[in-house]
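Entry 12.
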Amino acid sequence: MNLDGSIIWVGITNRFAVLLNVEQKEGITPFLTEEENEEYASHSITRRKNRGKFESKIGKVVYAFAAIRR
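Predicted 3D structure (tokens):
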């Protein structure tokens, strides 16, 4: 989170969309509930799995990153 001042929330999931670690800036009210964060993580994992059909052409996905600005 120290890389960019606009980062206010970071979540790391496993391949089953289970949030393993979540960090957020102090003093910030979360935009999403815990359940919504889990659902968002699930959608992210689904997108990653869908990329699998291109793996033979573009290579294996090691990790995925999203930056969302409000």
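Annotation: The chain has a mean pLDDT of 83. Residues 9-58 form one domain.
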